[in-house]
Design a protein that fits this description.
By secondary structure, this protein is α+β, with helices and mostly antiparallel strands. The chain has four helices and 14 strands. The chain has two domains: about 90 residues, Diaminopimelate Epimerase, Chain A, domain 1 (Roll); about 100 residues, Diaminopimelate Epimerase, Chain A, domain 1. It is globular, with a radius of gyration of 16 Å. Pfam families: PhzC-PhzF.
């Protein structure tokens, strides 16, 4: 097994929760895509990142079952870990902004993998949802306070790869922000927090707090 670090991305205000992310800093030691996929499957995180060049921010992203050109929580977590001002993904260059306790990344919403954005009437309905059977990738959401731009959300990947519910999902937050046309503060899963915005030039920004697993 390749040496890796574990981060929690999109932690709540108290530093708890967040979505676990595996980061293999020495991606060059695992050059073959098949080997990377096998490592991501064994680690079992919703995503694992292989850092191909820490200076340029070149990274490669995998779920347990497939390679992703772009994903939100891997980019936020790896940008925080490397301290870079940009990342280079298979989809293209991702802008990075370090903003106090938040690390933010900006990308076109079109880079996000397709998700079904399913709106509910109340946050309590979202809280009460059962995990659906494998199938479509569902991002369930409801306004907590529409005026304030606060949202309650839960994510169900539906892939049948052991990740029944995603604790915090940056790509889905990008899609929801683009659809609503405004910045949001999203509480997802057990208490993770994502903040989003629309900086212009066709980009959507998503950010959050990051910590190492041992902190």
């Amino acid at each position: 097994m390749a040496d890796h670090e574990v981060l929690y991305v999109f932690c709540g205000p108290d530093g708890a929760h967040g979505n676990a992310l595996g980061v293999v800093r020495d991606g060059a030691a695992v050059p073959a895509e098949a080997d990377r996929q096998a490592i991501a499957r064994r680690l079992g995180f919703s995503e694992t990142v292989f850092v191909d060049d820490p200076e340029s921010g070149a990274i490669d992203i995998y779920t347990p079952t497939l390679r992703l050109p772009f994903a939100g929580h891997p980019c936020v977590g790896t940008a925080w870990l490397l301290g870079v001002d940009r990342l280079v993904t298979a989809a293209g260059v991702v802008g990075v902004r370090h903003d106090g306790e938040f690390t933010r990344v900006a990308a076109p919403a079109a880079w996000a993998p397709p998700r079904t954005l399913r709106r509910y009437a109340t946050a309590a309905e979202v809280d009460g949802l059962a995990v659906p059977p494998p199938g479509e990738w569902i991002y369930a959401w409801a306004w907590q306070d529409e005026t304030a731009g606060t949202v309650r959300a839960r994510a169900f990947p539906g892939r049948g790869d052991g990740i029944d519910e995603d604790e915090a999902t940056g790509a889905a937050a990008l899609l929801l922000t683009a659809e609503l046309g405004r910045g949001l503060t999203i509480t997802q899963g057990l208490g993770s927090q994502l903040v989003t915005g629309i900086p212009g030039e066709g980009l959507v920004e998503v950010g959050g707090r990051v910590r190492r697993a041992d902190r």
